[in-house]
Amino acid sequence: MTTELLFRDDAYLKTATARVVAVGERGIECDRTVFYPQGGGQVGDTGVLLRADGERIAITDTRKGDAFDSVVHLPAPGTALPEVGETVTLEIDWARRHALMRLHTALHVLSCVVAAPVTGGNIAPDKARLDFDIDMSLLDAQKIERETNALIARGIDTETVWITDEELDARPELVKTMSVQPPRGAGRVRLLRIPGIDLQPCGGTHVKNIGEIGAIRVLRIRSEGRRNRRVEIALAG
Question: HSE-up of 179 (CA within 13 Å, CB side)?
Answer without folding.
Answer: 14
